[in-house]
Task: structure prediction
Amino acid sequence: MAELRSARVSGGYPRERLADSLGVGIATVRSWEAGRRIPTLVNLVRSGRELGLRLVIVGLDGQVRSARIAVKPDEIWEHREIRSLVAALRGERRGGAVSQDLLAERIGVSAWSVAQFEQGRLHPRPAVLAVWAAALDCAVRWRALV
Result:
């Protein structure tokens, strides 16, 4: 959240405007920025979009990992972005021949949860997404929204 706060401040984007655009109270945004609360992945992605940023998966080589996903009609942008992140991680898992069971053990969730994340039925918490990426020798990073 520190990177988002920095982008918000340097871009002259008022905290009140961000809160309004996300449909949350200013106290909520203040709590996120102070690290007292963690936004859901949807709110994190939405915040980034408001500030001209997007989350990407980056390998140890610094290259952005991506995977093709089908565009679903009427799908909100944030959900498509999350599906894209998850698809990139699923591709890394498969490319490394890592089973869902082994990945689950590495990241501290159940294999059922990994399957639900990969099928798009559940969104991981931001911390779980970061640990998932790290378990596959990747990282979650902010990049300019192009």
Observations:
- The CA atoms of residues 112 and 146 lie 34 Å apart.
- The domain at 2-54 is CATH 1.10.260.40 (434 Repressor (Amino-terminal Domain)).
